[in-house]
């Protein structure tokens, strides 16, 4: 825009007015004085707050381990998101409602955590009870022996099935 003012021929009145509007539009969203100072301070505070929170969240999340103890030794697994226990020990948390221990069977008890589903008693894949079979294959009917040994004189031979010359044309093959 400044190069237009230095031209040898100068600017016409309409061009000067358009240039003035262009410069105003370029400065339209910029802040000046006290407003600019307050805006810069606000941006700096936000950067410090978000950087600190992101840094803190990253360090706490990476260092969270399961709080369960097995034989007086703390579990070394990472805890599930938003919990204090790993997947193996999640059922020890009394406040959680997403997992239940598998009931197992009478012969083999099982306490493996299973996600709660729509069923009343959730089971692990090992103890899952399948529904009864819906499809029953058809049984092959046994053919009596009397029908298997049918007399052959009831059937016509191939020579007997051939059309004869005495038959009209429409009855022959």
Automatic annotation (TrEMBL):
One of its GO terms (cellular component) is nucleus. The keyword Phosphoprotein applies. The keyword Mitochondrion applies. It is found in: Mitochondrion; Nucleus. Residues 72-127 form the KANL2-like probable zinc-finger domain. Keywords: Chromatin regulator, Isopeptide bond, Mitochondrion, Nucleus, Phosphoprotein, Ubl conjugation. One of its GO terms (biological process) is chromatin organization. Its main location: mitochondrion. It holds the Pfam family zf-C3HC3H_KANSL2. Non-catalytic component of the NSL histone acetyltransferase complex, a multiprotein complex that mediates histone H4 acetylation at 'Lys-5'- and 'Lys-8' (H4K5ac and H4K8ac) at transcription start sites and promotes transcription initiation. Required for NSL complex stability and for transcription of intraciliary transport genes in both ciliated and non-ciliated cells by regulating histone H4 acetylation at 'Lys-5'- and 'Lys-12' (H4K5ac and H4K12ac). This is necessary for cilium assembly in ciliated cells and for organization of the microtubule cytoskeleton in non-ciliated cells. Component of the NSL complex at least composed of KAT8/MOF, KANSL1, KANSL2, KANSL3, MCRS1, PHF20, OGT1/OGT, WDR5 and HCFC1. PANTHER family: KAT8 REGULATORY NSL COMPLEX SUBUNIT 2. This is KAT8 regulatory NSL complex subunit 2. It comes from Cochlearius cochlearius.
């Amino acid at each position: 825009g400044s190069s237009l003012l230095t031209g040898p021929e100068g600017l016409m009145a309409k061009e000067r007015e358009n240039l003035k509007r262009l410069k105003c539009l370029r400065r339209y969203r910029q802040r000046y004085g006290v407003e600019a100072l307050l805006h810069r301070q606000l941006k700096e505070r936000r950067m410090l707050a978000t950087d600190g929170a992101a840094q803190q969240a990253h360090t706490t999340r990476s260092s969270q381990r399961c709080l369960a103890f097995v034989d007086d030794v703390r579990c070394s697994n990472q805890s599930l998101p938003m919990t204090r226990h790993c997947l193996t020990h999640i059922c020890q948390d009394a406040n959680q409602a997403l997992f239940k221990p598998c009931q197992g069977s009478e012969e083999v008890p099982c306490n493996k955590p299973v996600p709660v589903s729509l069923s009343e008693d959730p089971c692990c894949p090992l103890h899952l009870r399948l529904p009864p079979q819906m499809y029953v294959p058809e049984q092959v009917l046994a053919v009596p022996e009397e029908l298997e040994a049918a007399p052959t004189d009831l059937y016509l031979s191939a020579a007997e099935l051939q059309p004869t010359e005495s038959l009209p044309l429409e009855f022959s093959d």
